[in-house]
Structure formats: structure tokens, C-alpha cells
Amino acid sequence: MNRQLIEDSIRQLQAEMSPVAGIQLDLSPAECERMLAVLERHDLEYDRKLHLLGIYSILTLAAERHMECVPHHPDLTRNILDGDYLYSFYLQFAVKCRELDLVAYLAPSVKKMQIRRSNGDFAEYNPAAGIDEFLLQESRQRSRTSKAI
Amino acid sequence: MKLHEALHIDLNEINREIENLVARDKDVPKKSQLAQSILELIGSGGKRLRPLMVIVGGRFGRKPAGRRTLQLSAAAEFIHAASLIHDDIIDDAELRRGGAALHVKTGVLSAVHIGNYMSARVIELLSKYSGDKNRYVHDLSSVATAQLCLGEYQQMEHAFDYDLTLEQYLEKSLNKTAMLMATCLRVGALSTDSPEEVAELLYRFGEALGMSFQIQDDLLDFTQSAEKLGKPAGSDLRHGQVTLPVLFALQDPALAPAIRKIGPGSSEEEVTYVLNLITGSDALARTAEVSQSYLDQAAAIIQQLSGYPAHTDLQTLLQYFAGRDY
Q: Is Metal-binding included in the keywords of this UniProt record (chain B) (predicted)?
């Protein structure tokens, strides 16, 4: 099931991304595991799982590519462009999947991560934790609404 | 008269809004390197063309422009400035607007993330406009920025590629420059509730203007002094950017062999020799004609919007772009 989900998610992202960018989505199994564990904790439709795994993958990869931007790196230009493209594609993809509430929820933490990194603090960034919190909040709101009705 | 004066736009108000994006961010200490670097960069000049285009777009709506239009105009400049930070790293440029480029002051890794902060701050700010009908507020950060990156990829892919076609050159210019300008006018219009067809016409006007802007930029690399350009003249050729004057010059069998010899290892003398060849040919005049044809397209779109009093602002923009010499 998980393997299918990962493959479908990668296929969907590759279909949406411009071939001009030529980015390969090469997330490690450990990185995928973190998000898969979050998805298993919540009662979600398969399509939503695909979208959330996609959003997680894009954000993780964008942050990784920009961490590889060091002077004289042979792929410096490509790393900058890949990170830039992935951050803008993240928003495009989220708009298309109607996940703008998630974008709004994650925005402060993504921004704070950039502040920390600009300041030389390279602590790991894990978007799965933020997505988990968002899903919990969403589920609490839904349950409050259904009780009120 | 300066462009913002001709458009009756209070530039100080826009500049304050841009500065406040970082100065009023409670997550950024005022004296931090990040805050100081950004404030220095945005305070160092810039024509604010993109914010002005957002404001002009906002004059075509059914509602008066308010806070949202102003925030979008500041966002447009923030996104542009963030792209300049990353461009300077890619181009290994040490100077920006007469001062040291940001990455020279902070180091590359830090500068990359300062640019990222600016983009992330815009998304955070505009996320408060929720709901389907407000999705357009993200167009600057999503579609326009993605296209900008694609233009950069295309430029990288075709460095020193003297077989680049005219179509490929035009597509790269559209992605790299014109689409952001077009989006500025469009989101400005939608922020004041303009009809979709008006926003679309403004988008096409911005596209035509942006194409002319990029082509003139390519032309100025051959005709302007280093002092006025803020970078050495002939930089594009030296860095392998095959621009429109080069493409036209390549059509001349007498010039093509010398141009094709220019590569990453060419000497200053070789580059200067080819620069002089191109400047002495009809390539610059032909390039200027193409730029003018885009301005003519923009003028035709103004005619279609002549029922709106703000169409005169489009004429002002057009005149400014037509007379640009830096």
C-alpha cells in the first residue's frame, strides 16, 4: 500500500512539474517513512494522502537543494534553481489540490526555518510534523462542527 | 518627471510597505543580519516597476484600491528582490546597485536563505486572504516565480548555444521577465475586483511590455556604458547568453564564425572584437525593431481598454518603456 502511494505520488508530481526543470524526486525511504507514519495516523482519502505526500516531498527536497548551495559547488546554479522552482511549484501544487489552508498553516514554520538557516542554524527541518499538527487541528474542528450540528 | 509622479503614485507609501514586510515581522530581530541586509538592498534603489504595475492594474477594478493592492505591490518587489539575490549568486556578480552584492556580504548559503525568507514572508502575508476567489493573490509567488525559474533553466541550458532558435529565445524572455510583469498588472486588477476579461487584457499588455523590456535590456548590454548598466558592457556575451542581437548577427555569414568561437575560455580581446562586430552590424537595429513591435502590440491593447480612465496610465507606462535607456 505504502509503496503504491509513494509511486503514485511521485508519478503525479513528475506529471505536474515542468520537464524544463528536469528535477528527479529522489527522497530517501527514511524521509518518506516520516510522512507515511503521519498519514497512517489520520483517516484520509487516498487522493488526499497523495497530495499531502506530494507537498511534503516538494518542501523537503526544496530545503535539501538549498542546503547544497555552497561556493564552488559544481551544481551551485542548478541547486539554487531547483530549490527556487520547487518552492514555487509547492504553492502551485497546493493551489491545484485545494490545500491552501495547509499552506497558511505551514507558512510561519517555513519562514522561521529560512530565518534560522540564514543565521547559520541548520537544524533539520521536518514538514511532516507541521502537516500532522494541521491534520489534528482540522480533525478537532470537524468534530466540534459535527457536535454543534 | 519620474514614472511614479507621472502615474500619481505615492512611492514613499509603497517603499514603507516594502520595508514593513521585514521591519514588522515579529520573528525577525531588528538588528539581525537578515533584517539589515534586506533593508539595505531595498533601500539601495530600484525603479519599483513591478509595484507600480500592480497599482496601475488596481485602477481597472470595480472597487477602489485598498490595503490588499498595496500589499500585493510590496510583495511584487519582494519577490523581484529575492530573485535578484539568487541571480547575483548564479552570475557570480559582486556588485548590485553600486554596492557589494548581498552574498558577498553574508556568504552564499546565508544569502540563498535570505532570498527564501523574502519569498516565504510573502506567502505568509498573503495567506490571510483565504477562499477560492482569492487564490489569485498567490499567482506572484507560484506561477510567475515558477516561470521565472524556467527562464533561468533555459538560459543555463543554452549557454554558448549558437543554434538557439528565435522561438526558444522568445520563450526564455517571456518566462524570465515578461510573465512576472504581466502577473503584476493582473493581480492588481483582480485585487480591486476587475472583470476577468479586463484582467486578461492587462496581463497581455504586461506580457508585451515585459518582452520589449527584456529585448531592450539585451540591446543595452551592447550600447550602454558599464557605469550606467552597473555591470561591465558585453556581460551577456561573455557569460554565454545568446540574446537577440547575437541571434541576428549570427544570420550574417561574415560574422557567424567569429561569434561561434566565443566560449567560456575566450579572452577579453576576443569578446571585445566580437562585441564590436555585432555593434557595427544591422543586428542592433533589427533588435530594436522587434522591441518596437512588442510596444505596438501593447499600444493596440490600450485601445481596447480606452473606456477606462486608467488607460492613460498604460500609455504612461508604454512611453516610459519606449524611452528607457538604462
A: yes
Q: Which of the four CATH numbers 3.30.420.40, 1.10.600.10, 3.90.226.10, 3.40.710.10 does domain B7-322 have?
A: 1.10.600.10
Residues B320 and B241: their CA atoms lie apart, in Å, by 26
Decide: B86 and B103 in contact? Cβ < 8 Å. no
Do B117 and A111 lie within an 8 Å CB cutoff? yes
Give chain B positions within 8 Å (CB) of A59.
none
Task: Check if A16 contacts B (Cβ < 8 Å).
Answer: no
For helices B33-43 and B11-23, angle between their N-to-C axes, nearest 10 degrees: 170
What's the CA gap between A11 and A22, in Å, rounded? 14
**Nearest-CA distance A1 → chain B (Å):** 32
- pTM of this prediction? 0.94
Separation in Å, CA A130 to CA A34, A117, B106, B185: 12, 18, 29, 34
Residue numbers in B near A71 (CB within 8 A): 107-108
Report the candidate in A68, A63, A55, A27 with the shortest Cα–Cα distance to residue B120.
A63
pLDDT in tens, A100-132: 999 999 999 999 999 999 999 999 999 999 999
Beta-ladder partners of B95:
B100
User: Distance (Å) from the C-alpha of residue A64 to the closest C-alpha of chain B?
Assistant: 12
Hey, are the CB atoms on A118 and B121 less than 8 Å from each other?
Answer: no
Report d(CA B308, CA B251) in Å as an integer: 44
Q: Shortest Cα distance from B143 to chain A (angstroms)? A: 6
Give the number of other CB atoms < 10 A from CB of residue B304.
Answer: 14
Domain boundaries, chain B: 7-322
* CA geometry: angle B11, B14, B17, nearest 5 deg: 150
Complex ipTM: 0.95
Q: What distances in angstroms separate CA A30 from CA A33, A37, B86, B95, one per listed residue?
A: 5, 11, 30, 42
The domain limits of chain A are: 2-148
- For B38-83, the pLDDT digits (tens) are 999 999 988 999 999 999 999 999 999 999 999 999 999 999 999 9
User: Chains A and B: how many Cβ contacts under 8 Å?
Assistant: 127
- Rounded Cα distance between B206 and B200, Å, is 10
